[in-house]
Amino acid sequence: MSDEGDSSPRILIVEDECLVALDEEALVRSLGFEVLGPVGHLEEALHIVATERIDGAVLDIHLDGNTTSYPLAAELEIRRAANEAERLGIVVRREVADAARRFDRAKALLAVFEGGGMIDRAENALRVAEKSYKAGAISLIELLEAQRTFLETRAEYVRAQHDFRQARVDLRHAVGSNFQ
After folding, report:
1. pTM value?
2. Which of 92, 87, 88, 54 is nearest to 73 (CA)?
3. Which pLDDT tens digit goes with each residue over 98-148?
4. What are the CB-based long-range contacts (under 8 Å, 24+) for 107-115?
5. CATH 3.40.50.2300 fits 10-68, yes or no
6. What span, in angstroms and rounded, lies between the C-alpha atoms of 155 and 164?
7. pLDDT of 178 above 80
8. What is the pLDDT of the chain when averaged over all its residues?
């Protein structure tokens, strides 16, 4: 058996026929896998499953004439399912955290527009530019620049609203509820 730091996939070989076990071991090693075993008894294989990291297995169904490796296959499947459940839990927690961060950022940006008065200031600047233009204090180009700035600010506000709503939907989806 090798140490846990080895990154090669670890394959357990359970085979009670010596020549078959040696052939399987040579084949598995030639494919670049680390071999656990071979072992020829169910109890020994169950012990390895309980104490070692295993990425796969080659199982002889009939061991010692009347023993089967079905209990071992069931234990390996339980272990695989538990690993998959753990992996999915990690994925879900990461998705929820990412969605919450996007939601918080979008909410903060929207607050800059709504609570910070950015749209009101842009509208006021446009009104001042329009009055200044009518009074002859600024050129047409300066008025058009003020209009462009206002329209860009409005477009950014609409994008911020969209991003906030999308982030809220993404967070609801990640959490799996009707988050408000």
Report:
1. 0.63
2. 54
3. 999 999 999 999 999 888 889 899 999 999 999 999 999 999 999 999 999
4. 107/164, 107/167, 109/160, 109/163, 109/164, 110/160, 110/161, 110/163, 110/164, 112/160, 113/156, 113/157, 113/160
5. yes
6. 14
7. no
8. 92
